[in-house]
Amino acid sequence: MKIAVVAANGLAGQAIVAEALARGHEVTALVRSKNKSQAQKVLEKDLFDLTREDLTGFDVVVTAFGAFSPELLPQHTTSLEHLAGLLEGTDTRFLVVGGAGSLYLDESLTSQLSDAPDFPAEFKPLAKAMAQGLEALRRFNQVKWTYISPAADFVEDGEKTGDYILAGEVFTLNEAGQSSISYADYAIAMLDEIEQGQHIQERISVLGK
């Protein structure tokens, strides 16, 4: 497949690029500054300057965009709106590296993980911003999107086990009562979804066994 990875310089982006290349896909890094990933091709351009033409010809566009300072948090919504708008009405699939805070606490799908009393206060603004981005994405009915939430503990340098648990909208724990996944195993889950395409217009979640 021809895969474009937006924000390929980030840690999640680099892991996804590496996994895609290992599986023989053709990968283009879409980055604002000098490419740090292993991608064969590079388009150096700000996300918000990307055009429909820039994304033409790809089977899949992945965004690993992240914003963390308070003034940039709204970009979790505006970035998804911009990219989804460019892909609207096309056959190109759009996969999003999401967050865990917007996962629901139970099947009623009312309260989210970030609403839980023990959710760290310092992460609530980020979680809420990412949840708003997901809600904006859900409104794009003519986009083949998939939003993939990682486990609560998203481990940068964690082990690559090659295994994971696939879950849905509800926050899930493994048999050890943990919610954790390495960037490497998350990338495996992302590429499995890219190759299999079983969750179009759905949010799914993944965690380590």
Structural features, described:
- The chain has 209 residues and is of the alpha/beta class.
- The chain has a single domain, classed as 3-Layer(aba) Sandwich (Rossmann fold).
- It is built from 4 helices and 10 strands.
- It has helices spanning 11-22, 75-87, 124-138, 183-196, and strands at residues 2-6, 26-31, 41-44, 60-63, 93-97, 144-149, 153-155, 165-167, 180-182, 202-207.
- The strands form 2 sheets. It has an 8-stranded mixed β-sheet with strand order 3-2-1-4-5-6-10-8, sandwiched between helices. The protein has a two-stranded parallel sheet with strand order 7-9.
- Strand 5, helix 3 and strand 6 (144-149) form a beta-alpha-beta unit.
- Helix 1 (11-22) crosses helix 4 (183-196) and helix 2 runs parallel beside helix 3.
- The radius of gyration is 16 Å and the shape is globular.
